[in-house]
Amino acid sequence: MKRKTFAMLNRNKKKKKSSNRRKKKKKKKKLKNNQGGGPWHIQATLRHIRHLLALDRDTITHIFREGNQVADLLASEGWDRRYYYEYSSQDLPRRHRSLVQIDRFGLPTVRGL
């Protein structure tokens, strides 16, 4: 009798696990397709982002640091500093300004070795 009860409990646990997996898959799919809300603590943020995206036909894309030399240079420079520093367009060092110009014209650059 005890063995049967134990086996039934195990079956119930497996069913719960598989149903939880299905629920998680559905949530991920809804979130990916901009239908779901995601975790409760970020739902408002997600709604705001979706609203902003619906206003324009803009897209959000990821660019690796190597693809944006100016951002790469500023990020590596910021890593070395212990305090906040902000450049104005006139105060940019020569290297930064040259990379901005190259980026503005859409010219390819080769990252230094």
UniProtKB/TrEMBL annotation:
Which residues belong to any copy of the RNase H type-1 domain?
Answer: 40-77
Mention any Pfam family matching this sequence. Answer: RVT_3
Which domain of life does the protein's organism represent?
A: Eukaryota
Cited InterPro entries: RNaseH_domain (IPR002156)
Disordered: region residues: 1-40
Biased composition range(s): Basic residues: 1-32
- Listed name of the protein: RNase H type-1 domain-containing protein
The species is Abeliophyllum distichum
